[in-house]
Amino acid sequence: MTSFHSTLSRRDFMKSLGVVGAGLGTISAAAPVFHDLDEVTSSAIGINKNPW
Description:
Layout: H1 10-30, H2 37-42
């Protein structure tokens, strides 16, 4: 137990924060945005065609 601190530097931490932030930004921009249930049911995603 000679080392109590992490070997992750500030620079690596900030780079990983930027990568995560960019990933979340692209995911949120690509996902469809629905404001209420009428928009969900009128879209192609909201239609469930179940054979039973």
